[in-house]
Design brief:
Layout: E1 6-16, E2 24-34, E3 39-44, H1 48-55, E4 63-64, E5 69-73, E6 75-81, H2 96-108, H3 114-130, E7 133-139, H4 144-157, E8 160-164, E9 166-167, H5 181-197, E10 203-209, H6 217-230, E11 233-238, H7 242-251, H8 258-264, E12 272-276, H9 282-291, E13 294-297, H10 299-304, H11 312-317, E14 321-324, H12 336-353, H13 362-376, E15 394-398, H14 414-424, E16 430-435, E17 438-441
Bound molecules: zinc ion.
Length: 444
């Protein structure tokens, strides 16, 4: 099918979020993708004849979904540490700062070894793609060449990705895992320059101070300038754990809050995503809203490291952009389905403590994992839902695959099927994954 630029046409059930609605389930819709991987039409199935005339395709070329299948947008992991995938599922017995010193920094320091990096980075990109993560915002390590390699691997497998070479010039506990301030600045420049020079269609650099504790004031200022001069994304961590918040207060006595540390160094912009935010005050959330900065909610990690419970409802009430993150490996699961479930669980746990609070619905969590995540990464002009003009980033979900963890019963309509998938499904049900119109799972 090549006439009129139509590459593929699908007909069946679709589920996505829109600006006005957390979940829209469309039981008989028809969607067209062009040669550039963009959605060129998305309309009710009854319009198929006129669409075929308008776009010049044969209705016999339409690919029909089975009744137990649907398309949903690819999921957006707004916070994941690729190097930590090497030990995901283990090392969950210490609080954040000890966990970093004892488990994380020693492992991350090994990524100077590009063979080790190739192995882990290939596995994490493949694993997240299989689990439906079409866009990932990655932390790498302080090593520029290994970070560039992560970008190359994401490009090779067709994942949309923001890649951050980690910046840290303070580390008293594991002193071999840090850079000198000047070196860190120069290497960040080199990383950005070299990654942009590759001209990857879907892979971009993100300025990545690890967090306020690991960075001198001078480094933070320099990173703020680098982000501004190159109009780049910024990612870091904020207010994850009480001990960390206290430590930041001592390190930056001139700042009025943790948020103020990033504001003062030019790091809180409308292209910033901060992970966690469990202990952000209402005043800080108002600053996030004013700046257009976003929060990545990483509920598995917050519970696994006994960090805290983010009140997602309060973040949403402050009109702060909110998405979900796996935070591998503080979060033990690389699956965004897990992040959806833990976000709802966390919200319900908070409701046990406060009966006035409105829990997150599965529909809202679905939105956070798709359109919400794309807003967090300022990529909502090209991904996040099935709006015409966006890239076709999509998961084809089949509930009835062999060995499916889901059973269907008479009367299970598409909305029920979606809810069952979000709560009970896994990568076996994600039979095809598309990024910018290109099929990336199964792997070619
Ligand atoms: Zn993290």
């Amino acid at each position: 099918m090549s006439s009129g630029g139509v590459a593929r046409v699908y007909r069946g059930a679709f589920a996505h979020s829109t600006r006005d609605s957390a979940l829209r389930v469309l039981t008989d819709f028809v969607l067209g993708v062009n040669e550039q991987g963009k959605i060129i039409f998305f309309e009710d199935g009854q319009n198929v004849e006129s669409l075929s005339h308008q776009w010049g395709f044969e209705t016999s070329d339409i690919e029909w979904l089975e009744p137990h299948e649907f398309f949903m947008p690819g999921m957006v992991d707004t916070h994941i540490h690729a190097p930590q995938y090497a030990y995901s599922g283990t090392h969950l017995d210490l609080p954040l700062l000890d966990w970093l010193n004892i488990y994380t920094f020693p492992v991350e320091s090994r990524y100077e070894d590009l063979d080790f990096a190739t192995d882990v980075y290939t596995k994490v990109v493949k694993r997240t793609l299989c689990n439906g993560t079409t866009t990932a915002c990655y932390f790498a390590t302080i090593h520029t060449d290994a970070s560039l390699l992560l970008g190359q691997i994401a490009d090779d497998f067709g994942q949309r990705a923001l890649i951050g070479k980690v910046c840290m010039d303070c580390n008293s506990m594991v002193p071999n895992y840090k850079e000198q301030t000047e070196e860190c600045k120069d290497e960040t420049d080199r990383f950005i320059h070299e990654l942009l020079k590759k001209k990857y269609a879907l892979v971009k650099p993100v300025v990545t101070p690890r967090f306020a504790i690991s960075c001198s004031s001078s480094l933070l200022s320099n990173l703020g300038k680098i982000a501004k001069n190159n109009d780049l994304h910024i990612q870091s961590h904020i207010s994850e754990n009480k001990e960390e918040v206290q430590f930041v207060k001592e390190l930056f006595p001139d700042c009025t809050s943790y948020t103020d540390v990033y504001v003062k160094h030019g790091l809180l912009t409308n292209k910033t995503v901060m992970a966690h935010g469990c202990y952000l005050t209402d005043e800080e959330l108002m600053i996030f809203h004013e700046k257009g900065a976003a929060v990545s909610h990483c509920p598995n990690s917050n519970i696994s490291l006994i960090s805290g419970l983010l009140n997602a409802r309060n973040v949403l009430n402050h009109k702060v952009k909110l998405g979900l993150g796996t935070d591998v490996a503080g979060g033990y699961s690389p699956s965004m389905l897990d992040a959806i479930r833990r976000a709802v669980d966390t919200s319900k746990a908070l409701c046990i403590q406060d009966a006035e609070l409105q829990p997150l619905s599965y529909k809202e969590a679905f939105r956070l994992a798709t359109l919400g995540g794309s807003e967090v990464l300022s990529l909502d002009d090209c991904t996040g839902n099935f709006e015409v003009g966006k890239d076709f980033d999509a998961l084809r979900v089949n509930i009835c695959v062999p060995g499916s963890p889901i059973d269907l019963f008479p009367g299970d309509d598409p909305e029920v099927i979606l809810e069952k998938f979000l709560n009970l499904g896994d990568d076996r049900n994600i039979v095809e994954v598309y990024v910018a119109g290109k099929q990336v799972v199964p792997f070619s």
